[in-house]
C-alpha cells in the first residue's frame, strides 16, 4: 500500500528565551552606557523586574549567554515590522520579452522602446527578439541596426548584458538595468500590458506582442 506523502510545514524561527526560561547560572548582560558585565542570573532577573521590563537572551550560543533588559513585546513588534518592510521592498527580477520585426514602423518602435525602458526602470531585464520572415533574412544587417538603435535609445537606464546575435531566423539581445538607477514602483500602463513576461526568477506569463 503506497504511503501518502506528508507536506511538512517549514520550521518556525525559534523565539529567544526570556526571564525564567533562561537556564544559565550566569549571563553576560548588555547595558546601554555601561557596556557588558557578567552577573548571576538572579541579579539580572531582579534588575529586569525592578525596571518593569524583560530579561531577553539575545545570543544563547555564547558562554555565558548574552542578555538584554528590554520590553520584549515592543522588541518583537519592531522585528516583525522590519521583516514586513523588507518583504515589501524586495523586488523579484524577471525577464520581460519585447518582440520586433525588421520593418517595424516608427510608432510601433516607440511603443516597444517605452515598454523596454519602463521594464528596466522597475529593475527587470529585457530580452529583445527580432524575427525574420521569408526573404527578410537576406538583410540581417537591418535587424542588427534596429537592435543597436534600441540599445542606444535605452542606454540611460540600461546596459547590454547579452549583445545582439543571430539565433536561427531571429536576432536576440538582453538588456539589464544600469547599476545605480533608482527603481520605479511597478505600475503597468496600457502599453505594457501588450508585452509578455517570459522567463527568469519570479516568472510571469502573458500575451506577447509583435
Describe the protein in words.
The chain has 210 residues and is α+β, with helices and mostly antiparallel strands. The chain has two domains: 19-81, Translation initiation factor 3 (IF-3), N-terminal domain (Ubiquitin-like (UB roll)); 95-197, Translation initiation factor 3 (IF-3), C-terminal domain (Translation Initiation Factor IF3, 2-Layer Sandwich), CATH 3.30.110.10. The chain has helices at 41-51, 72-89, 106-121, 140-153; strands spanning 26-31, 35-40, 54-59, 66-70, 95-100, 125-131, 158-167, 170-177, 196-197. A five-stranded mixed β-sheet has the order 7-8-6-5-9, with helices on one face. The chain has a four-stranded mixed β-sheet with strand order 2-1-4-3. The chain starts with 25 loop residues before the first strand and ends in a 13-residue tail after the last strand.
Task: Give descriptors for this structure.
Translation Initiation Factor IF3; five-stranded mixed β-sheet; alpha+beta; 210 residues; 2 domains; 4 helices; Ubiquitin-like (UB roll)
User: In whole angstroms, how far apart are the ends?
Assistant: 53 Å
Strand order of the largest sheet: 7-8-6-5-9
Enumerate how many helices there are, as a single number.
4
- Tell me the Rg in angstroms: 29 Å
Count of folded domains: 2
| Poorly predicted regions | 189-209
For this entry, what is the oligomeric state of its chains?
A: single chain
Amino acid at each position: 500500500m503506497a504511503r501518502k506523502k506528508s507536506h511538512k510545514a517549514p520550521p518556525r524561527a525559534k523565539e529567544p528565551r526570556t526571564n525564567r526560561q533562561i537556564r544559565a547560572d550566569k549571563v553576560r548582560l548588555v547595558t546601554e552606557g555601561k557596556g557588558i558585565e557578567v552577573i548571576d542570573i538572579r541579579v539580572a532577573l531582579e534588575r529586569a523586574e525592578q525596571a518593569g521590563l524583560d530579561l531577553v537572551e539575545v545570543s544563547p550560543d555564547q558562554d555565558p549567554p548574552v542578555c538584554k533588559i528590554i520590553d520584549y513585546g515592543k522588541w518583537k513588534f519592531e522585528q516583525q515590522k522590519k521583516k514586513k518592510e523588507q518583504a515589501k521592498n524586495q523586488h523579484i527580477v524577471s525577464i520581460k520579452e519585447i518582440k520586433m520585426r525588421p520593418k517595424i514602423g516608427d510608432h510601433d518602435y516607440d511603443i516597444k522602446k517605452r515598454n523596454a525602458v519602463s521594464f528596466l526602470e522597475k529593475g527587470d531585464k529585457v530580452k529583445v527578439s527580432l524575427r525574420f520572415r521569408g526573404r527578410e533574412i537576406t538583410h540581417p544587417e537591418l535587424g542588427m541596426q534596429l537592435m543597436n538603435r534600441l540599445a542606444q535609445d535605452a542606454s540611460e537606464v540600461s546596459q547590454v548584458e547579452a549583445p545582439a546575435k543571430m539565433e536561427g531566423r531571429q536576432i536576440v539581445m538582453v538588456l539589464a538595468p544600469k547599476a545605480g538607477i533608482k527603481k520605479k514602483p511597478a505600475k503597468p500602463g496600457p502599453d505594457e500590458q501588450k508585452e509578455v513576461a517570459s522567463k527568469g526568477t519570479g516568472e510571469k506569463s502573458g500575451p506577447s506582442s509583435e
